[in-house]
Specification:
By secondary structure, the chain is of the alpha+beta class. It is built from 6 helices and 14 strands. The protein has 2 domains: 192 residues, CofE-like (60s Ribosomal Protein L30, Chain: A); 71 residues, CofE-like fold (Alpha-Beta Complex). A hairpin with a 2-residue loop joins strand 6 and strand 7.
Length: 294
């Protein structure tokens, strides 16, 4: 049973048509409230708030990510509210799930050693990236682009050595990011009574553009795409190809306040109208048969 709401003075409440509920300052262990069933029509604008969750601890195998984030929210003076969306960088989930590989156990092939020496790379990371891949998309100028077993196209199969332990270990992506998101989603609902959608993200590069940006790699409780086809724009034109990657856009928004240097591995997105429901990250992955650039 959800823990009872603490008897604190209620903050000024404002009705939110997208939520269908009053959004006051309920305790993060608050009363059960249903998540949204229908989104605000695309033509209606909204104001979004990003609340970083600061966590002053390292995550280790077996840690409860949902419980730790709830405790961090409370200590930071915040609480979950109906309509909130939780965005989490995958690294803390991978650590909690034990996806840490001792690089001393990786014996690189002669090919990995030769290629790595040419570009001053760690051949063990390259070897591990090849092992974690479904296929190699590009290997050129010191950059290895692979398709992971999940179907993601990214550098080095998403393997990371930053913010781990100084390069002795490498961190893999979660084995099943959708499953990880679903477990956290269920735990939050059990603890708070609030159906909070969960998006797990990672930083990806992009063809033809510099810099990294966040992408959704796991999802629960929220539809990842918004299909605006058939809607009419303000000039009377009926949209024919407008399918918006909502999950990726929310991941990018959260990336503005989360990061490797500020100890904020997660973020609450508040005020965004979304469509709840069962979803898989596969819905965001374009099949190779429809990919013009692979």
């Amino acid at each position: 049973m959800p823990r009872k709401q603490s008897k604190k003075p209620a903050a000024k409440r404002r009705k939110n048509a997208a939520h269908g509920v009053s959004r006051g300052s309920a305790s993060h262990r608050g009363l059960a409230l249903a998540g949204r069933k229908k989104p605000i029509p695309p033509s209606r604008s909204c104001e979004i708030r990003l609340i970083p969750i600061i966590v002053d601890k390292e995550f280790h195998s077996g840690d409860d990510v949902a419980e730790t984030l709830l405790e961090a929210l409370q200590s930071n003076g915040h609480q979950l509210q109906p309509g909130d969306i939780l965005v989490i960088k995958h690294k803390i989930i991978s650590k909690a799930e034990g996806q840490l590989i001792d690089l001393a156990t990786i014996i690189p092939s002669a090919e990995s050693v030769t290629w790595s020496k040419q570009y001053d790379l760690d051949p063990r990371v390259i070897e591990l990236a090849l092992r974690e891949s479904r296929s190699v998309i590009r290997r050129m100028n010191g950059v290895l682009i692979t398709e992971t077993r999940h179907g993601f196209l990214c550098a080095n199969s998403g393997i990371d050595v930053s913010n781990v332990d100084g390069g002795r270990h490498a961190l893999l992506l979660p084995e099943d990011p959708d499953r990880s998101a679903q477990q956290i989603h269920r735990k939050l609902q059990k603890e708070t009574g609030i159906a909070v959608p969960v998006i797990i993200t990672d930083s990806f590069g992009r063809p033809w553009r510099e810099g990294l940006t966040e992408c959704a790699i796991g999802i629960a409780g929220i539809k990842p795409l918004r299909d605006d086809r058939g809607q009419t724009d303000p000039h009377g034109y009926k949209l024919k190809a407008s399918v918006e990657a909502i999950a990726d856009e929310l991941a990018c928004a959260a990336g503005l306040v989360c990061g490797k240097l500020n100890r904020a591995p997660a973020c609450i997105v508040r005020g965004f109208p979304y469509e709840s429901g069962k979803a898989r990250i596969l819905e965001l992955l374009r099949p190779a048969s429809a990919d013009l650039f692979r």
